[in-house]
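Quick one from the shared queue. A colleague (R.T.) flagged Tail specific protease domain-containing protein as missing a structural entry in our internal table.

Convert sequence to structure tokens.
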Amino acid sequence: MNCKNDREFLNDLIEFYFNYETKGHFNIVDVDSYHRIHQVYKNLIQDKRISKNNWNYKKLMDKEVFDSYSKLGKDTPCLHEENDRGVDCYEDGEFFVIEFHSFDISMLNSLAQINEELQDFHGDKIIIDISDNEGGSDIVWEKLVSYLSGADYRYKSKITGHGKTSKKYVESYGIDVQGSESKFSYIDCIDIQSEKLFDFKKVYLIMGDKTFSAADSFARFSKSTGFATVIGKESAGFGTGLDPMLLKLPYTNVLVMLDSVGKYPETTKPTYQLNNIWIKDVEQYIVTNNI
């Protein structure tokens, strides 16, 4: 947001009111979140996953923004609690269960543990539970797929968005956007190359009504490509293939986070609807129905 006067600021706020809602990614970026996201994007630059022209990276590195958060200090309230449960994985009879409670970029470090424990697994059924996973980075689940499957994937999905700012954000990635500011669309394309570590054919994904953002992207990918059989409840949506966008507020120079495509989420429905999504219930459902 680069506002020349109060009227432009008001007009932008009105646009956000119509195009975004608080149950999505809408958040004020507090001090702890700023430093965490700042480090994540620095790591992405270091790993050459994004360029320094990335929209969010430039907002995070903005001198006025950095100075503002430095002045606020770490004594300010923390608005958002991070899910630090990470990953649980264990063998359960003929199943190997992986519970991803978050797709925070730090979860990449857990994949080595999963790989190691799978070496001793002699069954053929994998359950991945993302029923309470509220997202993070698509990079995590894409890497997981490359470990578990012997196949390569090229996946395309059409994403619909709304709003002038959202359209500019998507276009900043060099994506071909079709339509107007009031309603536009683009094709999200994901390429995954197998690491040739495993080739499990019976993979089951548990999703729920808290499955959100990057976790929703994973559910949609799994259902569309057949990577996994999707079981559970309809997701919360907002899996767009892009990170939520960051905007700098005038006067305060603090950041807000908004959904990259506005407030109309595209949810994902499971292949098999199941209300009881405890691990044991899902295992019994799979065995009983021979799926």
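The longest strand covers residues 153-161.
Residues 31-46 form the longest helix (16 residues).
Added to the table.
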